[in-house]
Amino acid sequence: MTQTGERRRPAEPGRRPRTERDKRDKRVKRVQGAEARRGRRSVQDRRRTTRPVRRKEMRRRWVALLSVLTVVALVYLLWFSSMLGVRQVDVVGANSVPADQIRATAAVPDQKPMLRLDTDEIRDRVAQMPGIATVDVSRSWPGTLEITVTERAAIAFFDSGPGGDGVHLVDGGGVVFKTLKERPAGLPELKLMSVSADDPVTRAVTGVLGVIPQQLLKQVTTATAKTPGSVEFTLADGKTVRWGTSADTERKAKVLAALLTREGKVFDVSAPDLPTVS
């Protein structure tokens, strides 16, 4: 009887029969070989190349996320957290004005974040104090605010007289910044109808007292003027000096020193090139 179909070859001695898995692996190898011959990479090669790329991408994403979290943490720390808040307020340059009074006027919120402090506003509050001429406010990390002040220096005093509000200290800019009960020693008196930093006559008189030599200033007992250009003052020995404006201070001082060696009552150096003694 004749058999139809393909006749199976008997297995060779010592050789195991091929299974379906062996056949599949052989086909895969054959396909890979064909792809390699055509210049295409195998699936395994593509997978080996793709994995490092994915790892790098994930690494970049993690770095970006950590960077964002770091920025958010810094913003919170600097702007909202009390960790870098005000813990101390230092006052530098205060002598006659109490430091505690300056701190109270500055009104710096305790533990408020340093970056959120309005230093200009703090400076303006302190600058309104009568005895303060200039103010500088700065941050000293991590938690100290430093207020540096320059106090006003008295150049003269003004006595408001009977029925007035007392004796007032006046600085070189004509600013009245302090009231006393008694006349201070060692300062000239301003003989004016009124004293104000907005008054040109006041500023002219205090301006002259602020520029004349200290040796001459120590001899001045009173200073007055009717106009900004007619400043004159009285010395301790009763002599009157007509100074004029604050211009040519050095020249006028030298001329006056020579004139004071002469006899006379009134010494006019308002025009230093044509001085007079009468």
TrEMBL record:
Its main location: membrane. InterPro entries: Cell_div_FtsQ/DivIB_C, FtsQ_DivIB, POTRA, POTRA_FtsQ_type. PROSITE patterns: POTRA. One of its GO terms (biological process) is cell division. Residues 1-25 have a biased composition (Basic and acidic residues). Keywords: Cell cycle, Cell division, Cell membrane, Membrane, Transmembrane, Transmembrane helix. Gene3D superfamilies: membrane protein fhac. GO terms for cellular component: plasma membrane. It holds the Pfam family POTRA_1. Residues 1-54 are annotated as: Disordered. Residues 84-152 form the POTRA domain. The chain crosses the membrane at residues 62-80. It is found in: Membrane. PANTHER family: CELL DIVISION PROTEIN DIVIB, CELL DIVISION PROTEIN FTSQ. This is Cell division protein FtsQ. It comes from Amycolatopsis orientalis.
